[in-house]
Write a structure and sequence with these properties.
The chain is α/β, with parallel strands linked by helices. Helix content is about 40%, strand content about 15%. The structure holds pyridoxal-5'-phosphate. Pyridoxal-5'-phosphate (PLP) binds near residues 169 and 233.
Length: about 375
């Protein structure tokens, strides 16, 4: 018997009760499957760009810390997104870290964070991890923001931060801009973070409003356009806000390999814009095809995924997987998502395989799981 065995199980009581009660973030194994579960871009890098990247990365000084203020990448990014005057941006290890930073900078006992719900699950988890109260406001029918309920919650709870995913995940729709404007007015001086993770597929943005709307921040990420692996997000807003948030950021949060990769990729944004346009076209075709399959309701999407509703989501999820297609089963995340699966838009052949498998599942010829 090993020493470890004799010592018995460790006493985990120093870990917070709520943390011990948490379910770890997990993804389903995807080996050998058509992977339509994580909103990834299905297209890889063009071969010449991949070769150039390999060369560039071979010269990165891995013995050195990365810059604490990565000027070159920030400047290129600011130019690429047309950052308004008076605004700055900060980089994060994915948007995920930026959500942590915003909440950490505002967190205090009794403080509240609001979001229309269902939305990106990380908003709620990170809020609670920081000891704050999360106040999700249920969406109305058709996944629109319930304006009256949201404004009432903001008036009552005075949230320090309100998150609005625009387009929303997992529903895929773009909330009415006027409703979000009302939210931003009501929430002031509380921050409103517009999460534009899917902006390349929605082709609409709040960035030009940042100069005027002094309590709004816009968050972007490179994850959904084809660079999920490098983990790079950015948060934009009035320079005064960013100066405060920078104090909370870990000093070397974006690693040198990511910075070098981003530096190169930001010179080739046309590649990613072209892929995003293909994905958007393919999404529209996918939705149209879904309408022609009996037993499935697709919802409108301005993102690179489509939410669908079926009568038996668990069976369809398992059936699809048995037929080689992995999607996300979001049916138990929230009562409003009952029956729902979320399907990332893949390559044309992948989407065709998904449609065929789905039709097979729904016509009752489902393979036993
Ligand atoms: C996917 C997604 C992100 C991206 O997170 P990263 O940490 O940048 O990969 C952010 N917000 C929403 C709503 C998302 O769906």
């Amino acid at each position: 018997m090993s020493l470890l065995g004799r010592a018995g199980a460790p006493d985990l009581s120093p870990i917070r009760d709520d943390v011990r009660a948490m379910i770890p973030f997990g993804t389903h194994p995807a080996a050998g499957l058509i992977k339509l579960d994580a909103m990834e871009n299905p297209y890889g890098l063009p071969a010449d760009l991949a070769r150039e990247l390999a060369d560039r990365l071979s010269h990165v000084a891995l013995n050195r810390y990365p810059p604490t203020d990565p000027r070159v990448v920030k400047t290129k990014l600011a130019r690429a997104i047309d950052l308004p005057d008076g605004c700055s941006l900060m980089l994060g290890n994915g948007s995920d870290e930026l959500i942590h930073i915003v909440i950490q900078a505002c967190a205090a006992p009794g403080v509240c964070v609001v979001s229309p719900w269902p939305s990106f699950v990380r908003y709620g988890l990170i809020t609670r991890l920081n000891g704050c109260t999360f106040a999700p406001v249920p969406l109305a029918d058709g996944f629109a923001i319930d304006q009256a309920a949201t404004l009432a919650t903001i008036r009552e709870r005075r949230p320090v931060v309100t998150f609005v995913a625009w387009p929303n995940n997992p529903t895929g729709n773009l909330f009415d801009r006027h409703v979000v404007e009302r939210i931003a007015d009501e929430a002031s001086p509380g921050l409103v973070v517009i999460d534009e993770a899917y902006q390349p597929f929605a082709r609409d943005t709040w960035l030009p409003d940042l100069g005027e709307r002094t309590n709004v921040l816009v968050m972007r990420t490179l994850s959904k356009i084809g660079l999920a692996g490098i983990r790079l997000g950015c948060l934009c807003g009035r320079t005064e806000w960013l100066a405060e948030l920078e104090k909370v950021k870990p000093p070397y949060n974006v690693n040198a390999l990511t910075l070098e990769t981003a530096d190169l990729m930001l010179d080739h944004l046309d590649v990613f814009a072209h892929q995003a346009a293909r994905i958007s076209d393919e999404r529209d075709r996918l939705i149209e095809s879904l309408f022609s399959i009996g037993g499935v309701t697709p919802f409108v999407s301005a993102a690179n995924f489509v939410l669908i509703r079926v009568a038996e989501p668990d069976e369809v999820f398992a059936g699809l997987r048995n037929l080689g297609v992995l999607v996300a089963n979001v049916s138990k995340l929230h009562p409003q998502l009952a029956g729902c699966l979320r399907v990332t838009v893949g390559r044309p052949q992948e989407n065709a395989a998904f449609l065929e498998a789905l039709a097979q599942c729904l016509s009752g010829r489902m393979t036993e799981s």
